[in-house]
Specification:
It is a single chain. This protein is mainly β. It has one domain. Helix content is 0%, strand content 32%. The protein contains no helices and nine strands. Strands 1, 2, 3, 4, 5, 6, 7, 8 and 9 form a nine-stranded mixed sheet that branches. The chain is globular, with a radius of gyration of 16 Å.
Length: 159
C-alpha cells in the first residue's frame, strides 16, 4: 500500500470563494444558488469593473432562465438583502435542492430560477453540481452535501 505525498488521497475539489452583495430582494439561506449580475439588471449595479461594489461581478441576483452563459455561486451564510456575504464559486458546499427525492448520490443537478438546485435535468440543461449525499425522503431538502462548479459547470445533458 502506498502513502500519498503532499495531500489527501482521492479527489479534493479546490474551493473558490468570493465576497458579494445580495440584490435578490430577500434574505438568502445557506445553500441558495445565485447568479452574478453581469447584465446589470439591478438598479445598484452600473458596471462590470473588477473590485467595484457597483459591479455586476460583485452583486448577485436570482438565476436567469438561460441554461448557460452565466456565473453562479452558492451562499455559504445567511445574507440579508443588500448585505455582503461569502459565496462559493466552485468546490464542495451545502446545496438546497428541489426534487431531491429523485436524486441519487453521484447524480447531477441543474439550477432553477428560484435559486435552488434541481435533481431533474432535461436535455440541453447545464449540470452545475453533483450530489455527495441524498436522503431521498423529501421533495425539497436543505443543506445537502454537493460538488459545485458555477464557473464552468460539468457539461450539458444530451437526450
Amino acid at each position: 500500500m502506498s502513502t500519498p505525498i503532499g495531500g489527501p488521497i482521492g479527489y479534493s475539489p479546490r474551493n473558490v470563494d468570493i465576497d458579494a452583495i445580495n440584490r435578490t430582494g430577500a434574505t438568502l439561506a445557506i445553500g441558495d444558488v445565485l447568479q452574478l449580475d453581469l447584465a446589470q439588471s439591478d438598479g445598484d449595479v452600473s458596471n462590470n469593473t473588477q473590485g467595484d461594489e457597483n459591479s455586476g461581478l460583485a452583486n448577485l441576483i436570482l438565476p436567469a432562465a438561460a441554461t448557460a452563459g452565466r456565473l453562479l455561486v452558492v451562499a455559504l451564510a445567511t445574507t440579508a438583502n443588500d448585505g455582503k456575504g461569502k459565496f462559493r464559486l466552485k468546490g464542495r458546499c451545502k446545496c438546497n435542492v428541489l426534487n431531491s427525492d429523485t436524486g441519487t448520490i453521484g447524480g447531477g443537478m441543474t439550477v432553477t430560477t428560484a435559486g435552488l438546485f434541481d435533481a431533474t435535468i432535461v436535455a440541453g440543461e447545464v449540470v452545475w453540481g453533483f450530489f455527495l449525499e441524498v436522503t431521498g425522503a423529501l421533495d425539497t431538502e436543505l443543506n445537502l452535501d454537493c460538488i459545485f462548479d458555477g464557473e464552468n459547470g460539468f457539461g450539458i445533458r444530451h437526450a
